[in-house]
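== Folding task for one protein ==

=== Format: two labelled lines per protein ===

==== Paired sequence and structure tokens ====
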Amino acid sequence: MSALSTKEARFGLAQLLSQPEGFSKSYWEHRGKHFISLDAHPFELEHVLKKGRRESEIYLVYCPGVTDGSVKGMLLALHEVVQLAQQDESDQPFRLRIIRAQKCADWNNPDKFVHTIFFEVVSPLGTYIAGGCTDCSGGGGWGRHQLESTFNVVAAVCGIPVEEVIISQNRSEGFIDALNDVYNAHTEAKRMADA
């Protein structure tokens, strides 16, 4: 992780401390509605917090392709995880990971890739994965900026690294399609239950 600029530190801290707009319910109320339980890690990555402990439950935060809800949900989960970490005296009470899934070659530079970016927190409460971000301009780029700044501030304050993983293009497409299928099935089941 590179050194934080004052501007980035202030922005990340503001994101973490703010109550995400439209997310006035508590973490626990939100967890049941917008955090979708997954059977396995969608990118086949390990998600053990500490050696000798079992893997935590995995949750997809909101819709993998919707930036705003994914960012707000991750900020809510991260806020709860950081609150819980105050009671943990270990060196690493939680883990932060940025997963960059290669999507396609960059139009302007064919040697580089455009990425769909997922942010992950591994904690005793669970493993939370939020998508909806890219390294392009627009909404996905703004979401990446919000979560990347917040992750960097939390990492600096808590003295833990931000892990980074790149998933190759030939693997990432299937993983992302599977996540979208899980979200769509969950949404359809909710719609049928409400009907």
Observations:
- DSSP finds five helices and six strands in the chain.
- The chain has one domain: 6-46+54-194.
- The first helix runs from residue 6 to 17.
